[in-house]
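Entry, Tuesday afternoon. Goal for today is a structural model of the target with adenosine-5'-triphosphate bound, before we commit to ordering more compound. Inputs were pasted exactly as handed over by J.K., no edits. I checked the ligand SMILES twice against the vendor sheet because last time a stereocentre got dropped in transcription.
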Amino acid sequence: MLQEADVRTIIGKLKDPFLHKTLAELEAIEEIKINPEKGHVSVKVGIAKTGTGEQLNLQQQIVSLLKEAGAASVGLRFTDLPKEKAVSFTEETNESILSGQNKTTFIAIASGKGGVGKSTVSVNLSIALARLGKKVGLIDADIYGFSVPDMMGITKRPEVYGEKVIPVERFGVKVISMGFFVEDNSPVIWRGPMLGKMLNNFFHDVEWGELDYLLLDLPPGTGDIALDVHSALPACKEIIVSTPHPTAAFVAARAGAMALKTDHEIIGVIENMAYFESKITGEKEYVFGKGGGEKLAEELKVPILGKIPLQQPDWNENDFAPSVYNADHPIGQIYSEIAMKVADLI
Ligand SMILES: Nc1ncnc2c1ncn2[C@@H]1O[C@H](COP(=O)(O)OP(=O)(O)OP(=O)(O)O)[C@@H](O)[C@H]1O
């Protein structure tokens, strides 16, 4: 039968998912109890942040390692690691999502002008990728026009451990927004250099953990602010959102040109508000015109990743997220298809 020292050695090698230090180094194994008759091992472990997907992963690892080593059953409890301990380690680790070791793909979502649904697309594409089992983060980089927390129904603020900010998790997506750092929805009045600094903080000071994709909701348009943000970003794959009106597509093509000039790679176009489909007759009406998506895709020499009709999400009184489409909503299904295409492309 397993002894306490064996259990300590086996799970001591596993790492805290946020602090990237072993549980032994963190002295995070708080209690081990063994019942030799039943072969039951129960363990209490402290981690930097409980109640997350990372905790679930760690839990599975601990259970399978202990069972492999001979435990008949395993009981696990997680507690929050004392804050002082977590702080001292976050200051030491200083790993960034931009460091070469991780394999995160950055996907920027851009548009030629405001109001075409860029943020709605960023939110729902992130959630659709998470529903596919991908590890996803979302930066609301629309610094002046941030709307992501509200769209996703986020009411919490991120926790801060020493120098590190832990993103808020919602619908399986880790989210950071300028909106978390301003009081009472007040306007942001910073200019150029401050803006770059803020974005830098989003990359360096946020504890993203392991991510497959980090999506960025960019500011709309092709003006100074969009250009500043484009230039401040690491190399991204980029998706351009446009409505079907030929003029909207014409403006969106300029956003595409700006992406290319700032060394980002455009992977596709999403046509939003593509049509209205009557629930009664099934007839499609092209309220905002037709053909813009094709024109834009042709001009940028990329595929159309999807066409999203006009329709609101189903609002849920208990879990209100005004812009999130459920997985079984017709538009939620379109987002799943787009997410699969994106995952195939990258
Ligand atoms: N397919 C759709 N059907 C119905 N309403 C939509 C659709 N897509 C977006 N909307 C609505 O259109 C409005 C603008 O969308 P959103 O804020 O996502 O645009 P945006 O391009 O990010 O704007 P900006 O960059 O100016 O903030 C929102 O009220 C949103 O709910």
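The first strand starts at residue 29 and ends at 35.
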